[in-house]
Amino acid sequence: MVKTNIKIVVLISSLIVVSLALSHYSPEQDSFTGLCVLSKPGFSLLYNGTATLGIGEELHVGKVYTVHGRLRRASSGLWMDVASIQESGLAFPLETLRGAYWDSAYPLILTPTRIRLAVPLNVTRGHLISAKGIFYGNRFYPLEVEEFQYLEKPADGMPYLLHGVVTRPGNPAEVWNGSESFRVYLPHGVSLNPGRRVEILGIAKLYSKITLYVEDSNDVRVLGMAETVPISRARYGQIAEGECLVVRAGRSLGLNCTRLRLYNFSARVGDTVHFNALRRRSSLLCLSCNVAKPREALPNSICSPAEGRFGKVEGRVAWVKVYRNGFGIANVTNGTCWILLKLSSRLGVSIEENESITAYGEFTTYRGMPAFQVPSREEVCYGRHC
Questions:
Q1: What is the pTM of this model?
Q2: Mean pLDDT calculated for residue range 175-196
C-alpha cells in the first residue's frame, strides 16, 4: 500500500513539472529583418538602421533578409539561432542620396562630397543617380537606385562629360566646347593632338578656367577631326582650309588672305601655300600644309605695279644710289619698264650696276614714283647671292 502511494506521488510530481514547463513554452519564433552589411563563411551581420544582428550563415552583402529563430544576447550583441531565412522587402526607413556615380579605387556617390558605397552599382560612370539606402559605419548601402544622365553644365567637384576640339596639346591640354575653353589634365601616357574632336569624362573644378581632371585613359575618346571650312569663314576650334600667298616669313608665316599668322610650317615669301590649319584665337596652327606653287613660278610684275600688292620683280640694275645713312635706291629695268627698289640698310644688300636681280615684296612709291620694297635679305636674289 505504501509503494502504491509513493508511485502516485511521483506521477503527480512529474505531471506538475511538465505542466510548468509547458506553461513557459511558446511555439512562436523571433524574427528580424535587416540588410546584410557583412558576410563571411559561416557568419553574417544584419542591420536595420537601429540594431545589428549576427547569425551563423553566409549571405549576400547588400540584400535584405528576414530571419526566424531564437534571439539571444551574446557578448558582442544580438545573436540568433536561425530556423529559417528568406530574402525580404524593405521593412525599415531609408535615407535618400542624390549625386553622381563614380568608381575610382572603390565605388562612390559624389554629392560632391565623396561618399563611399558598400557595393558597386550597375549604372554608367558619371551619371546622376538617386539612391535610397542606409549608412552602416562609413559606407552607404544602396537598396533602390534611379539613374539619370550626365550633368548638363560643369559643377565643382562633380563628373562632367566634355565634348569639344583640342586647341592646344600637352598636359594640361586645352579643349574648346564651342562656348568656352577647358583645361584638361590627362592620365599618364595619354596625349591629344590639336584639331581632334574628343569626348572626355572627368571631375570638374571651377577655377578661373574650368579644369577637368581625368583619372582613366578609358575616359578619353577621340571622335575624329574638327569641322573643315574655308579660311574666310573659319572660327575658333574649326579647321581652316585655304591656298594663299606667303607675304611674311620667319617663326610664323604671314598670308595675303588673312590677318592670322600660320604656325608650325615653313615656307618662303612669295610661295603659295595650301593649308589645313586649326583656327585658334589669333593664329592658325598647321595640321597639313604644303607649298602648292613655289615663288619662282610667280609672273614678273615690274610692268604692272599696284601699290600695296605683293609681287615679283625681275630685271637689270640700271643705276644705284646710296645715301649717307645707308639707305639705297636701285633702278631695276626690264625692257621699257622700270621700278625703284628700296634698299634698307638693315638688309645688308650691296648690288652693282648691270647685275641681274629678282626680288619678292610689295609695291609702294618713293617720292611719287613707282617703287618696290622687300621684307628681308632672303627676298633679294642677285649675282651669286641667290
A1: 0.78
A2: 96
